[in-house]
Specification:
about 30% helix; about 60 residues; 3 helices; two-stranded antiparallel sheet; two-stranded parallel sheet; globular; alpha+beta
């Protein structure tokens, strides 16, 4: 069983992962990284999967690395 980390990387502004490219959020709320959540559900059957959303947690780049 492999360990897989699906990462929504940190950034200086809140980004949205939609439409096959990133966009900057114009409001103070965040959308969940739906694509990563769907992938985690598909991979979870055969692998140990963790999703880390650095944008939502406010995690800095140094800590994410």
């Amino acid at each position: 069983m492999s360990k897989i980390l699906l990462l929504n990387p940190p950034g200086t502004r809140p980004y949205l992962r939609d439409y096959y490219c990133s966009k900057i959020a114009k409001a103070d709320y965040l959308y969940e990284p739906t694509d990563l959540l769907i992938l985690s559900g598909l991979l979870n059957e055969d692998h140990q999967v963790q999703v880390l959303d650095c944008i939502a947690t406010g995690m800095k780049t140094a800590k994410a690395l």
